[in-house]
Amino acid sequence: MKSNSKLFSERAVPGAIVLLTVAGLLFCAAAGCSKAENDIQAGRKHDGNSPEASGKKTSVFFKPYVDYPEEGTKAADNSVRNIIISVYGEGSLMETLDMEAGTGASVELEIGREYSFYASANIARDEIPVSEQDLLKTRVSVSSGEPSGGFPMAATGTFSVTEENLTVSVLLQRLYSKIRFRVDFSDVPDLEITSANIRQAANSVLLFGESKAVLTTDGDAASAAELSALNSGSEIGLYLPENCQGVLLPDNDASASKVPDNIPGKADVCSYIEVTGKLNGENSLFGPVTYRFYLGQDTTSDFSVIRNTDNEITLIPSRESISAPTWQVDSKDVYGKMPVLTISQHQYYFIDEDGIETHLMPETELRLQWHKLFATDDYYIAIAESPGGYDPDNIFDEMMSTMVARSEDGKTWEEIGKFRATDIAYGNGTYIITSGKNRYRISIGGKLWNALSADAEMEIVTYGNGIFMGFGDDYYSYTSEDGIEWTKAGYIGLSPGKVVEAAYVNGEFVCITWNSKIARSKDNGKTWTITQSNVYWRPSVDLYSIELTYGNGIYLLSAYEGLFYSTDGNTWANVPGIGNGNCFGYSIDYKDGVFSVAFNEILNNSIYVRVFTSLNGRDWTQIYDYNCNVPTMGIRIAR
Hints:
Elements: H1 5-11, E1 26-33, E2 57-65, E3 82-89, E4 92-100, E5 105-110, E6 114-121, H2 132-136, E7 139-141, E8 153-160, E9 166-171, E10 173-174, E11 176-183, E12 191-199, E13 201-202, E14 204-206, E15 216-217, H3 224-231, E16 236-241, E17 243-247, E18 272-280, E19 285-294, E20 302-305, E21 310-316, H4 319-322, E22 329-330, E23 335-336, E24 340-344, E25 347-352, E26 355-360, E27 369-375, E28 380-385, H5 395-401, E29 402-407, E30 413-417, E31 423-427, E32 430-434, E33 439-444, E34 449-453, E35 458-464, E36 467-472, E37 476-480, E38 487-491, E39 499-505, E40 508-513, E41 517-521, E42 529-532, E43 547-551, E44 554-559, E45 562-566, E46 573-574, E47 583-591, E48 594-603, E49 606-614, E50 621-627, E51 632-637
Parallel strand pairs: 2-9, 11-21
Antiparallel strand pairs: 1-21, 2-5, 3-4, 3-6, 6-8, 7-14, 8-10, 11-16, 12-18, 13-15, 17-20, 18-19, 19-22, 19-23, 24-25, 24-51, 25-26, 27-28, 28-29, 29-30, 31-32, 32-33, 33-34, 35-36, 36-37, 37-38, 39-40, 40-41, 41-42, 43-44, 44-45, 45-46, 47-48, 48-49, 49-50
């Protein structure tokens, strides 16, 4: 999540529409003007007693004017066609003046009395209420977008006639707020804006007082020329009528919570901006995305759009926010399409936009089955075994029936060694490969490997929170900081069964066990909490066919015959729409906010490999499929 609170604190002034740091986005706002006041005491009540009426009258001249920034201002912002000024004394209508733009008008008023005036411009008013209280209730219909021929304006104030030939200046205020809007594409350069709209704009405004919408409609929208300007990094202007809904979430301190579900009864009368766009794949993401954010005087609680303010809002979309769809960042139809690497029994496939590269893995004459693929920042590592099995206690048999290979680019492979390998972990520059026996391999940098002995027959190993953690047949967890010295950490227990997958995710170590139980530890394996999964995964075909990953708030688990997801790591559900009864060999990966899954499907006596991606682990898009006629057992998003 990006932050720019310093810019906000230095530039924002009262009266601005501000929105900052919402759901992985940053909105920087600053106002050029706040709510204006009429000069010559207009708009201010007198603190002292009103002077005594003399009975003598004098001419009072009303001088209307507007004052709006010239830079970036459209001519219509300052356009005035007609002005009506009503003068009230002691709550009753005294005089009404109807004048043209650029002129003033005079009226005879009694010296020594206090009066109120109410001015409107660019508004047709057939009747002026006799009662001042009735006038204050007056609402006028307004255009949902930028008005043609001039903005509706209003002004009100009080004055005392204490001298002859008094001039009262009337500063007209627009009933609209102006938003100078732009988009910063720094983090998502492949985003193209396709629309920018004001949603839920007020369709009427209280003429002489703070106004909140009663009914709303779609508001101003960017034109084709303005969209082109947005996509080039330029600023555009959007207009919306005043809508002062006020503080609706007084206890809220999270910008991500400023959403419709938290303001029932008011969600359809608060104004917001909606921006749509599409991702074109420069960062491997494709599809439509929609950004929405409520307007207001702060990022968390206030929903007021104030008339006659000039505001700047910069939308800075982040790639991070696209990976976690919300109302504010609706990216549920965005999908990832990037190069992937898969391995089958005897060969590998490197798939990208240019097609599929198919190559044989090393030592294929031994007919080894490459059944698991790992990836670190520097290397891919693949593990193979003989499909017929072998005697792990016979070193010669093991050397003829196993292999571990390494690749820097996923295309050119070299043999690491001929030894049994059950799992691999990487951390702090060190690689560890377990063998399920009392020996394991270790490498600093991944090029030179040494065989070491261990006190336990570790089959599963992972890295997280600064330590390696291994698991074996004795149902204990073992930890090491350097991969050389190991310590027995904690007893998981016989009941959970054998650990078949482990990972450090979401701030804890999580183990998947043989009998569909979950073991979790927050203290580096010293104590474990065991829960029974509500679904059954079957690792019996291949003990190491289970994989666990985590991202975007979702746990994703692949077993030989299915794909499962969970939001808490305890309660699991089958991923809908992925696979069927003819599918097997699921393998998963997660990188840069994107999940990927590959699995095999038997169709018309052939084996097809399907590759899907997802941002949230639940909604998936197929990006590749191919006929390989041999099962694929590993996938990794190309590093």
